[in-house]
Design brief:
By secondary structure, the chain is α+β, with helices and mostly antiparallel strands. It folds into four domains: 1-30 and 230-371, Multidrug efflux transporter AcrB transmembrane domain (Multidrug efflux transporter AcrB transmembrane fold, Up-down Bundle); 61-199, Alpha-Beta Plaits (2-Layer Sandwich), CATH 3.30.70; 374-410 and 616-753, Multidrug efflux transporter AcrB transmembrane domain (Multidrug efflux transporter AcrB transmembrane fold, Up-down Bundle); 434-584, no CATH class. 64% of the residues lie in helices and 7% in strands. The chain is built from 24 helices and nine strands. The chain has helices at 2-26, 44-55, 76-89, 130-138, 167-183, 194-228, 232-254, 266-290, 295-305, 307-322, 330-360, 375-389, 391-409, 427-438, 461-478, 486-497, 510-523, 525-529, 550-567, 580-614, 617-641, 647-676, 681-708, 716-747; strands at residues 62-68, 95-99, 105-108, 117-120, 154-161, 189-193, 443-451, 538-545, 573-578. The protein has a four-stranded antiparallel sheet with strand order 2-5-1-6, sandwiched between helices. A three-stranded antiparallel sheet has the order 8-7-9. Strand 3 (105-108) and strand 4 (117-120) form a beta hairpin. Helix 22 runs antiparallel to helix 23. The protein is elongated, with a radius of gyration of 32 Å. The mean pLDDT is 85.
Length: 753
């Protein structure tokens, strides 16, 4: 006994030292939000996008600020403040360009001027000309819906900043913008862009991570009190759970892994998984104490009979998360790796710190209560008797549920929106939706144009005609309000050449084209570099569109690609869709499919492990049926509720299966153990139901409640993870309590042992 206590004290010291070290690293954990991390590095589309961006620039390093004024922006005091703001923010060290109606000029050439001269579209200092200026502004299609909305009650300030700004610089720039908006008394505004989104997302992730951890503590304390009704029953399990979470966060910080949007749910997962291990072990320990065993023997029996099942469940849960490595996206892989590591760290603590605490602490008073007096025993005893009597009815109910669920599964769709992670109440989402409604939208459209004929270049008449034909389709059929391209630049130059006459906003002839390109190269070479690369063999067509969803974009892209095939000269020019939005659509579609493949792999591996342990094909099939049914049921929920299959909803299947199978394994392991003790088939099943049922119900309710906490998130993805996993695990609980015992009774016989 003294030797065991001494070893327990050494274990406790080692665990505490390790916890202090990992706690030291945990304080440096970082938060990160980079949606481009979802782009597979080895994917040809990603490589093409990177090459395209290297030729020109990023399509995401900008800020849109819409400044509203009722009934119209054409008021001197308002425009004066807007102009002051635009001029002030342009002085910021990371700002490269600021464009607004108050500082935009059009170039005009008259018969009396050898070179075009510039005049402002809107002369702020001459309010008497506002009426005339407004008419001229609305005659220019490239200004309307971009720099001013059609209602003329909002003006847009376009801020282009240095590429790939760090979070610190993004925060500083946003703070500078906010200060200037307040200084110029521009209080009615909407803004959007990577800088704005980065600050919003990271702030929300930091807040919600802390919120979920705090709520998880409150939840676990409440459940533990109701379960054990003693201080011992709270602080011992809570110690294991708390250190499990601390260890994985410290481990991530040690290896430089930041918490991203997906990893914000990691603490909640580790919390509930660790609690599951602890409750199964502590419950068995209590049962053995109540049976009259001394403390040491009770600990040994608990770990001998439940420990193997706990090892299996930890291993299978880890496999479920490791299967996410099949997804070729860094954030998903990181989530799978670190969650699997967290699960195994929780297991290590359950096998080191927990037994040490059980040895070094006094036997809790709750152990004095007779097992037959326990309310759980009475409830489970009645439930088991009812199950045996009504087993045909139970099986019939599950069969009907399966048929209905398959029907619901067939209704599932896989749409995707850029703003899907933001709740409808989110201030950022409301701002983004405003730009979709009042301006051109915020979803980038990017088209690469490659001149294949080596004897031509971007400025060749044949190439320009092809680009114009494509641009016309995009603006008239695809739904883009205005396209920025070499053609649009040349049209404006030709218009300027002819005194600003609208009728001359067409492609110039070859001689004028050369002259215009020379002028632009002389006066504004940097702008030209944004549209034509140095080889003159590549150019781009850029625009934005509203966040209309993947299905709508796919339909538009199919029609557009068909137009290209039927109407473009493929020997002369090649068009290729690219850009951040295009890659997100493409990779999110592949992601859902890869997650399903990962789930199948997880099911296969876990099935093989169970087959090796139980040496029974029937046991494996029973376990898979019990755990696949809840997945089909949650698919039906998606279908009937009209919830799209996307990252946040597809990932729940892998998470749920890895966790749900734990209780099944605990039940089946105890059942085999009772059979090996020589008990009859029915009695072994009854003893398993009574002894394991309580722990299964407790752990399932804690896990469900733990995931339900995620519904407090402002991110819809996290909200759905919490809601749908909770539902899935609740369905799994029903299957374990009602279906599993009947299947074992009917289909598993003693000879299969």
């Amino acid at each position: 006994m003294e030797g065991i206590k001494k070893f327990s004290k050494v274990t406790l010291v080692v665990v505490l030292i390790t916890s202090v070290l990992l706690g030291y690293f945990a304080k440096d954990i970082r938060f990160d939000y980079d949606f481009e991390a979802f782009f597979p590095e080895e994917d040809p589309e990603t490589k093409f996008f990177q090459e395209h961006r290297h030729r020109f620039e990023s399509d995401n390093d900008f800020i849109f600020i819409a400044l509203k004024n009722e009934p119209s922006i054409f008021q001197y005091d308002f425009l004066k403040r807007v102009d002051g703001f635009a001029d002030s923010i342009s002085q910021d060290s990371v700002v490269r360009q600021v464009q607004c109606l108050t500082n935009l000029d059009e170039y005009i050439k008259t018969p009396f001027s050898p070179l075009p001269f510039k005049r402002p579209y809107l002369d702020v200092e001459k309010p008497e000309n506002y009426s005339k200026d407004s008419i001229r502004i609305f005659e220019n299609n490239h200004l309307v819906n971009f720099f001013i909305n059609e209602k003329s009650n909002a003006i847009l300030v376009f801020i282009k900043h240095a590429q790939f700004l760090s979070k610190v610089k993004c925060d500083a720039l946003k703070l500078r913008i906010d200060d200037l908006l307040a200084h110029y008394q521009l209080s009615d505004f909407k803004y959007a862009g990577r800088t704005i989104g980065l600050k919003y997302y990271i702030h929300k992730m930091q807040y919600e991570t802390g919120l979920f951890i705090g709520l998880s503590f409150i939840l676990v304390i409440g459940f533990l009190y109701l379960s054990f009704k003693s201080f011992w029953g709270i602080w011992v399990p809570l110690s294991i759970v708390s250190l499990s979470m601390l260890w994985i966060v410290g481990f991530m910080a040690l290896f430089g892994q930041p918490i991203n949007l997906i990893l914000t749910v990691l603490p909640s997962i580790i919390f509930v998984v660790a609690m599951s291990d602890v409750i199964h072990l502590v419950s068995k320990y209590m049962d053995e104490l109540r049976a009259g065993k001394n403390k040491i023997d009770a600990i040994k029996t608990a770990y001998r009979e439940v420990g193997i099942a706990t090892l299996m469940t930890s291993f299978t849960t880890a496999i479920g998360f490791i299967s996410l490595l099949t997804v070729n996206m860094a954030p998903i892989k990181d989530f799978g790796i670190y969650t699997a590591i967290g699960v195994m760290l929780a297991f290590v603590l359950a096998y080191t710190l927990l037994p040490a605490l059980l040895v070094l602490t006094k036997v809790p008073k709750i152990a004095d209560q007779s097992i037959t007096e326990n309310i759980w025993y009475k409830i489970l005893h009645k439930l088991f008797a009812a199950l045996i009597k009504k087993r045909k009815l139970v099986i019939s109910v599950f069969i009907v549920t399966l048929i209905v669920s398959i029907g619901g599964t067939l209704l599932v769709q896989s749409n995707y929106f850029l703003l899907e992670d933001l709740s409808k109440q989110s201030s950022l989402r409301k701002d983004y939706e405003y730009f979709d409604k009042e301006f051109m939208g915020l979803r980038p459209f990017e088209l690469s144009v490659h001149v294949k004929d080596k004897t031509k270049n971007v400025y060749s008449p044949e190439v320009l005609n092809e680009i114009e034909k494509t641009t016309n389709y995009l603006e008239n059929e695809y739904g883009l309000k205005h396209c920025f391209s070499i053609v649009s630049i040349l049209k404006l130059a030709n218009k300027a050449e002819h005194g600003g006459q609208k009728s001359f906003e067409v492609l110039p002839d070859t001689i004028d084209t050369k002259k215009f390109i020379k002028q632009i190269t002389t006066f504004d070479e940097e702008s030209l570099k944004l549209i034509v690369d140095s080889t003159k063999m590549y150019t781009r067509i850029s625009s934005t569109i509203g966040d209309i969803g993947r299905y709508a974009i796919e339909d538009k892209n199919k029609a557009f690609l068909k137009f290209i095939v039927e109407n473009s000269d493929k020997s002369l020019i090649e068009f290729k869709l690219t850009g951040t939005a295009h890659l997100l659509d493409r990779n999110m579609t592949k992601l859902s499919k890869n997650l399903m493949l990962g789930l199948l792999l997880s099911i296969g591996i876990i099935g093989l492990i169970m087959g090796f342990i139980y040496r029974s094909f029937k046991m494996v099939m029973i376990a898979l049926v019990v755990n696949l049914l809840p997945l089909i049921m949650i698919s039906a929920v998606l279908g009937f509720a009209g919830i799209d299959l996307k990252v946040s909803t597809a990932i729940i299947f892998t998470i749920s299966f890895g966790i749900a199978v734990d209780d099944t394994l605990h039940f089946m392991s105890r059942f085999r153990l009772e059979l090996n003790k020589g008990k009859s088939h029915l009695y072994a099943l009854k003893r398993t139901f009574l002894s394991t049922g309580r722990a299964i119900v407790l752990t399932s309710l804690i896990i469900c409640a733990g995931f339900l906490l995620l519904m407090f998130s402002d991110f819809l993805g996290t909200f759905y993870v919490g809601l749908l996993i909770s539902l899935t695990l609740f369905f799994a609980l029903l299957a374990d309590l009602f279906l599993l015992p009947i299947l074992l009774l009917v289909f598993y016989k003693r000879r299969d042992k």
